[in-house]
Design a protein that fits this description.
The complex is a heterodimer of chains A (147) and B (605). By secondary structure, chain A is mainly alpha-helical. Chain A is built from 5 helices and no strands. Chain B has one domain: 8 Propeller (Methanol Dehydrogenase, Chain A). Chain B has a 5-stranded mixed beta sheet with strand order 1-33-34-35-36, with no helix packed on it. The chains are: A mainly alpha (147), B mainly beta (605). Chains A and B meet through loops of A and helix 2 of B.
Chain lengths: 147, 605
């Protein structure tokens, strides 16, 4: 799965970098794995880094925010899906890397994901991302809904 | 929290601005109103209004198809709408043209029924905000258009009402009547009464401030706005005209004072169901949805006029009477169901009544001139209330079924919030049999509330509500109901919940559809199943009947599962690789029987 190396990289990057809670301005990450690039060359640009990646404390805060900011109203309790898709089944419409998740929450997405940038702080969004990334993914992406 | 204070300040400013501009308009235009003449000669060859007629009977006087010959019914035409999602509502047939509105992105098709193969005359494709499907709680549905004065009028999910030239497909006007940023969408079918187009927003799960707007048919200008909650000045409850049957002694501003603080401003009461109109009384009837949030601890009081029926003068919006089915609704029992207007003999007296099958499980028969409750009996299993007191109009609530966050988990409340019948699936009434025909749902629910925080444009709910099957080993039943006595006459049990509208004809045949994709006919007098055809995707629309160019009787119905079943029925959405759903635990796996699709079907003998 392509996500694991990315997560590991980000973890390392976060550990090497700045103190927790300090982030740069929220420019869109333009490199993430759901983009198809011409000629297989990715354009130069910023990559957002999760400053609290892997932090259990941040994940716990994120879980609280997931209820408090009404995320569960669409994505369901435990982010298992309701009006909006599951966020814990390993399937991603707009990319599952930390930066892509940040982008989805900060700017919103078509089909109804509201933009929370300006409503919650950037640190809070990273806590939400960390919460979602802390949820156990199925070992392989399921391909059947049958029981 | 500062964040919350900001949100509320923003909301109230927007509201104040809109009130100022709308009040000014009312003064100018209200003088130009003349009531609609009665008559509306029964035109059974066509289907010009969502519920067939002003009374919303969904009765067709055509008698070519009968119980004796319906077995020969066959599909003669179909058309893929190109849109997935719940195909609720019904086509219109006007001047030998069939008009079809799809779910988001709300395409409008016009088919020429006078020519072979029903060629497309034109197709209207409005720009609809792509954010709107995610603001709609329960799939991006649309419940149809209405026809008046050469115009097709309908609503777009992103909060606009449009009028389109019925002959050419040219857009005549487009008016913004709801705001996505405040959680408002529109899914209902408008009704045109004289020169007024009546519309209202959805968003009971988003803390909206419910209302109806009346637009001028010629220009699309908003003429008046009647709020469902708030002070009398906003509700248009004027001392000279407002005469509720049960709450006369309650004093002014009931719809404000039955709420804590200013919670009425985000208290829901959406208008996503059906409208009806009595030309003789000059009264518009509509139901209002649930109070928000679901967590009842946050809104002690009756929360008027949520989960209610309101009767207004269409000319200036004056509220004439209102009746609340479920005071302080603890169960999301929206009252958006159709109010069917009929004359019935009750205890030897002819009464002008409206009949309403509420989500709360009671079938209500109400004097439509006064709002007096005449009959209220359960049409499905009900356990949240022991009955309805006809003297006070109030339900006798079982206090062990109340649900606020402080009460913890409440087990086994019946019916579920899907309703004993969904307002999305309107009933039909036959004057020949004197019976009502409706799709019912046999589900119960467990309920756990939690504190909800209001953030405009996001869900404002505060509850977790898993369903359980009702007793009896079936999840839905199609029933015939006697509204004069409040009793079930016959029923047809179905494996899955029923979610389609009903049609009954002068041939004494009743039509409905099932979630597993069958379109069915039964004998309207006996309930004997007579015919069925698999239409491909589950049916959540409402059948209609019309006369073809050849003079024969035709039927039309949408296939296209969705609505709440897009959320609840497991893996019926197959067009999105990022979205795979496990089966629902309260029902057999519906995805083994149907998947999404959108098709208009036409049948004839």
């Amino acid at each position: 799965m392509g996500l694991r190396p990315v997560a590991a990289l980000l973890l390392v990057a976060a550990a090497c970098r700045q103190p927790e809670g300090v982030t740069r301005s929220s420019r869109a990450a333009i490199r993430y794995d759901q983009h198809v690039v011409a000629g297989t060359r990715t354009p130069a640009g910023d990559t957002l880094t999760n400053p609290v990646a892997g932090s259990a404390e941040a994940a716990a805060q994120g879980e609280k925010l997931f209820g408090a900011m009404n995320c569960d109203g669409c994505h369901g309790g435990g982010a298992t899906g309701f009006a909006a898709p599951s966020l814990v089944d390993g399937r991603w419409r707009y990319g599952g890397a930390d930066a892509a998740l940040f982008h989805s929450v900060f700017y919103g997405r078509p089909r109804g994901m509201p933009a929370y940038g300006g409503v919650v702080s950037e640190v809070s969004i990273w806590q939400l991302v960390t919460y979602l990334r802390s949820q156990p993914l199925p070992p392989t992406v399921p391909t059947q809904s049958w029981r | 929290m500062p964040r919350r204070a900001f949100a509320l300040r923003f909301a109230s400013m927007a509201w104040a601005c809109s009130l100022v501009s709308r009040t000014a308009v009312v003064i100018v235009v209200a003088a130009g109103w003349a009531t609609v003449p009665p008559a509306s000669a029964q035109d059974d060859g066509q289907w010009t209004r969502p519920g067939k007629d002003f009374a919303a009977t969904r009765y067709s006087g055509l008698a070519g198809i009968t119980a004796a010959n319906v077995a020969g019914l066959r599909p003669v035409w179909n058309f893929s709408t190109g849109v997935l999602g719940g195909h609720e509502g019904q086509p219109l047939v006007v001047n030998r043209t069939m008009y079809v509105v799809t779910p988001y992105p709300n395409v409008l098709y016009a088919f020429d029924l006078s020519r072979e193969d029903y060629p497309l005359k034109w197709k209207y494709r409005p720009p609809v905000d792509p954010a709107s499907p995610g603001i709609a709680c329960c799939d991006a549905v649309n419940r149809g258009a209405t026809y008046a004065d050469g115009r097709i009028v309908y609503n777009l999910l992103d909060g606009h009402t449009v009028a389109v030239d019925a002959a050419t497909g040219r857009e005549l006007w487009k008016t913004k009547v709801a705001d996505l940023a405040r959680g408002e969408t529109i899914t209902m079918a408008p009704l045109v009464i004289g020169t007024r187009v009546i519309v209202g927003p959805s968003g009971g799960e988003y803390g909206i401030h419910g209302r109806v707007d009346a637009l001028d048919l010629a220009t699309g200008r908003i003429v008046w706005t009647g709020r469902n909650t708030g002070p009398d000045s906003m509700v248009l409850a004027r001392p000279a005209t407002f005469r509720p049957f049960y709450d006369r002694g309650a004093g002014p501003d009931q719809a404000q004072r039955t709420w804590p603080g200013d919670t009425w401003r985000r208290g829901g009461a959406p208008v996503w169901g059906w409208l009806s109109y009595d030309p003789t009384l000059d009264l518009l009837y509509y139901g209002t949805g649930n109070p928000g949030p679901y967590n009842a601890d946050q809104r002690p009081g009756d929360n008027k006029w949520t989960s209610s029926v309101l009767a207004r003068r269409p000319g200036d919006g004056s509220l004439v009477w209102a009746y609340q089915f479920t005071p302080n609704d603890n169960w999301d029992y929206d009252a958006n169901a159709e109010n069917i207007l009929v004359d019935l003999t009750i205890k030897g007296q002819m009464r002008r009544v409206l009949v309403h099958f509420d989500k709360n499980g009671f079938g209500y028969t109400i004097d439509r001139a006064t709002g007096e409750l005449l009959v209220a009996e359960p049409y499905v299993l009900v356990n949240w209330a022991k009955g309805v007191d006809l003297a006070t109009g109030r339900p006798v609530v079982d206090s062990t079924k109340l649900t606020g966050a402080s009460r913890g988990k409440i087990e086994r409340i019946c019916p579920s919030l899907e309703g004993g019948k969904s307002p999305a699936s309107p009933a039909a009434y036959s004057p020949r049999t004197g019976l009502f025909y409706l799709s019912t749902v046999n589900l119960c629910m467990n309920w756990t509330s939690a504190q909800a925080i209001y953030i405009p444009g996001t869900p404002y709910v505060g509850a977790t509500i898993p369903y359980t099957p009702g007793p009896g080993g079936y999840l839905g039943a199609f029933i015939a109901w006697d509204a004069a006595s409040g009793r079930r006459v016959w029923e047809i049990r179905e494996k899955f919940p029923l979610w389609s509208g009903s049609l009954v004809t002068a041939g004494d045949v009743v039509f409905y559809g099932t979630l597993d994709g069958w379109f069915k006919a039964a004998d309207a007098r006996t309930g004997k199943p007579l015919w069925k055809f698999k239409v491909g995707s589950g049916v959540v629309g409402a059948p209609i009947s019309f006369t073809g160019a050849d003079g024969k009787q035709y039927l039309a119905v949408y296939a296209g599962i969705g609505g709440d079943w897009a959320l609840l029925s497991g893996d019926i959405v197959s067009n999105d690789p990022s979205d795979l759903r496990p089966p629902a635990d309260f029902a057999p796996d519906l995805a083994r029987y149907t998947s999404q699709g959108g098709t208009v079907w036409v049948f004839a003998r």
